[in-house]
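Researcher: Batch entry, complex prediction.
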Amino acid sequence: MYEIRFHGRGGQGGRMAAEAYALAAFLEGKYAVSFPIFGAERRGAPVKAFTRVDDKKIRIKTQIYQPDYVVVLDETLIETEDVLEGLKEDGMVIINTPKKPEEVELSKPVKCATVDATSIALEILGRPITNTAILGAIAKATGKVSIESIEKAIIEKFGARLGKEAGEKNALAARTAYEKTLVGVAKGGKEFKPRKKWLPTVEEMPIGGAIATMQTEAGLVGIGSFIENKTGDWRTFKPIINKEKCIGCKLCWFYCPEGCISMQDGKATVNYDYCKGCGICANECPTKAIKMEREVRA
Amino acid sequence: MNIKDLPDEDYFTPGHTACAGCAAPAIVRNMMKIFGKDTIVYTPANCLLVFSGTYPHLAWKVPYLHEAFENTGACISGIARAYKKKGRKVIALGIAGDGGTYDIGIQALSGAAERNEDAIYVCYDNEAYMNTGIQRSGATPYGAATTTTPAGKKILGKLEHKKDMAEIMRAHEIPYVATLSISHPKDFLEKVKKAKETEGFRYLHVLSPCPTGWRFDPSKTIEIARKAVDSGMWTLYEAEYGEITKIYKPKKKIPVAEYIKGQGRFRHFTEEMIEELQRWVDRKWKRLYGEEP
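Model: Structure tokens for the complex:
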């Protein structure tokens, strides 16, 4: 048996990727199960999904804590958490990033495959949904399923939901990623500080209990404390404001769901710590002073 | 009241975890700029609760409460009365989604309205139970695909039309009922301000386009809200004590086919379905504007 853990963001299709991979393995005569884990996550928040594949019936139903493979659909996730947690000694990580495996920095040096799935998805699908492209990379990196089975599974699974043409396009995204995937060894040494949990837990709170705003070892809690949650790493595109064209009408300031636009010297300014890149500001700007550009991360 | 009259001070912080392009945070942030710091916010179960109040973190800079799904009306009644007893002037503000208003919360809401409690109730209407994964509600429009009314072989989306909740509230003859859209800032802000200045039970109903549930590009949120108004799918008006006192009429009415374009939840629409939805819009239009569309 081998186990795969997918790290993605809500809406990127981590769950669909896990399911499509299971289907591909099934098409090759294996037993396979897949399931996601999510609580109240919105689109953009980190989520996980799991796939198990075996030659015999699979009885185990738990989450995967010691995966053979870790798949990361969004490279910003490797900055905020140790995706290698529990990965087996000879395990491998497959990451969506434009970097080469040798340039990726993780908590320890491990076998690593990389592919720029976001660019492939944007080019072929026109949307930064990377779940099908990454499947091609998994096939290449692990050699556990053939790319043909992956294509078949995608056409079946995505075709049923989005129509035949979309199914085929997604299969092409997987094939392209398959051909572009690089395999190597990642750098180790990156340190992650385990985040302290804030106590009491919600179960331990007395009925009618209230939380005051306070600075704790686990960070700020209580009223207004979401300000410490930087949502800027959710975005694929970022708004660039042309100050010459900005007339200071404040429409973007009003419409921005994040409240991350402020007015400085009468011109709109974006706080990229929070901007999720929805593009409403660019779409609504009456003078077209805002342009959405692909986010390039260092 | 215009955008430029709004204060810079925010009572709803960035860092919340709503989907990119969600209209709800823009709605509540701008409302809170007007309601101000002397506000107690209550929300039942809805997306807003989840993305702005994940224990122990909170995006609100005012006191905030959460209780069960069905009792927004009861809770804001309690808040309003408790503060009145203490002799403090605060705004008791309840913000529920369409599920928590149209279906689950209607009993407590109707009771609070009938007693004319001194509170403000906001329904942010994204036309389905988005929080739990896009299940149909009484607010879901005709033909829209949701996970419980999928477009398949047997049915093509929801079979019934949207319930007219604002009209139900108007029938309570409360001091103030208004329908709002974030796409019309001036109208939006004036109504929020008026709600703040009115005493007694006030009901604000805001359309809140949902990129995830309606399946459209997150940059189009405001554009779609605007099209909803222009097509008559969403009508903007206000009523005092049951009498309609102000109506916003779009300059040019667009066909409903224009509104549904670009929204995945209507992708399966046939010509007959477009006609059926148009008939519903035209009936509503005639009722409100008193003229043939």
